[in-house]
Amino acid sequence: MAFIKIPTKGMRDLGPRDMLLREYVLGVMKDTYQDYGFELIETPCVEHIENLTNKVGGDNEKLIYKVLKRGEKLDFDNASKVDDLVDSGLRYDLTVPLTRFYANSMNELQSPFRSFQTGRVWRADRPQKGRYREFVQCDLDIFGEKTNLAEIELMSAVITFLKKLNFEGFQIRINDRRILKKMVLFCGFLESDADSILISLDKLDKIGMDGVYDELIRHGYEMDKVNKFLGFFCENLSLEEFCLQFQMDEDVVKNLREIMNYTKEVTGASLFFDPTLVRGMGYYTGPIFEIMVSDYASSIGGGGRYDEMVSKYANVSVPACGFSVGFERLIMLLEERGFEVPLTKKRVAIVIQEKNTDVFLKARSMRDENMIVKVVYRSKNYKHQKEVLEANGYHILEM
Fold first, then answer.
1. What is the pLDDT of residues 267-296, one digit of tens each?
2. Nearest CA to 33 among 398, 257, 323?
3. For strand 66-68 and strand 86-90, is the pairing parallel, antiparallel, or unpaired?
4. What are 2-57's pLDDT values in tens digits?
5. Which residue, among 298, 297, 316, has the nearest Cα to 307 in the 3D structure?
6. Distance from CA of residue 36 to its chain's centroid?
7. pTM as predicted
8. How far apart are CA 303 and CA 154, in angstroms?
9. Which of 91, 192, 254, 341 has the greatest number of CB atoms lying within 10 Å of its CB?
10. How far lies 93's CA from each of 52, 222, 236, 362, in Å?
């Protein structure tokens, strides 16, 4: 049987030029986040299936790449369904593994704990431009900070990082899951209906208001309640005016306004209240936010507060808040802009026709002077060889 020469659908090979840009961006990110006191961690790509299917991941739980049991545990004869053969899965995000890590390690960690993590995640999604089945996520999280200092610091760190890559025109959409849930209850829905209703609302930008209406009706919700709920989104109101309609707790409104004011003053970003912002993950419990830049229609990052996650893994409640940058979208935008990675070291290609000791001594001496040096034989088509080397930033030294 012949080998297939292309990657699996939704996966990619990344060449040297791809990796040069990606590693540079990760380096800028790492330096920036460490300046804000965030510490780098790493978690495994495979998690227990119970952790990945505990109903906090929203629709992403339908997209898990499941891992079969091994050895004697893989019992096909006594399995009545696929899940009987599964005990693990590839992580679909970094928040679930991070929270498990924190719950196991909190006694040894600083409090509040600021973490920074990058890594590949997998979702059996439909591939499209800027959307893959295997991709890199970059998460910034704070555990143990119950005040809105967490939200302000997270957004400040991310915007500082993006500015270093020459992005500008920042707009941050912000909402609060408590506002959305209060609306659901105010309209007469059951509390248990909230997640389903909000999942439908989260599709607003894709299917429109009529599509959300049709989906809620198909789910069996009463027409008058659906109309009342969707009616809240017909007017363009301020945060305070919007929340006054259903007597939202003043503390929630004040907290959100403080986040908006402080973040604007610190970063210069434009923040606006968007009552339709949901964020797909079911684990959010408070403020949620997404960030956009001037030359791209979709968000390039987002996050929110998830104060109830740690208690699922430990017998203690710990406030938590996180921000994830859309790394793949960021790379795509930089490539479309023709962004060039600044060369921090001089690059030299020593082109030879035959080996001799002087060549290797010269190369070693130049590397000791903090240069990138490679020794290559002169090819028959030297003109083309030289053009390729120079296009990749190499100065030519013939020996």
1. 999 999 999 999 877 789 999 999 998 878
2. 323
3. antiparallel
4. 788 888 888 999 998 899 999 999 999 999 999 999 999 999 999 999 888 877 76
5. 316
6. 19
7. 0.88
8. 9
9. 91
10. 9, 34, 33, 48
Query: CATH says 16-336 is which class?
Result: alpha beta
Report the candidate in 277, 12, 268 with the shortest Cα–Cα distance to residue 155: 268
pLDDT confidence band for 230 (50 / 70 / 90): very high
C-beta of residue 102 within 8 angstroms of C-beta of residue 318: yes
112 cis-preceded (ω within 30 degrees of 0): yes
Spell out where 71-168 has E strands.
Answer: 86-90, 113-122, 134-143
- Strands across the sheet containing 86-90: 46-48, 86-90, 66-68
Q: Provide DSSP, 155-174.
A: HHHHHHHHHHTT----EEEE
Q: HSE, CB side, 13 Å, CA atoms: give it for residue 276.
A: 18
CA 250 to chain centre: 31
pLDDT at 314 over 90: no
Phi, psi (deg, nearest 5) at residue 68: -70, 150
The b-or-e profile of 176-198 (16+ CB within 10 A means b, else e) is: bbbbbbbbbeebebeeebbebbb
The pLDDT assigned to 130 comes to 67
Average pLDDT, the chain: 91
What are the sequence ranges of the domains in the chain? 16-336, 347-398
Residue 94, CB-side half-sphere exposure with 13 Å CA sphere = 23
Instruction: Using alpha carbons, list the distances in angstroms from residue 200 to 84, 145, 275, 276.
Output: 30, 31, 14, 11
Distance of CA 352 to the CA centre of its chain: 46
Average pLDDT rounded to a whole number, residues 255-274: 95
- Alpha carbon separation from 392 to 6, 11, 165, 361 (Å, rounded): 25, 26, 21, 24
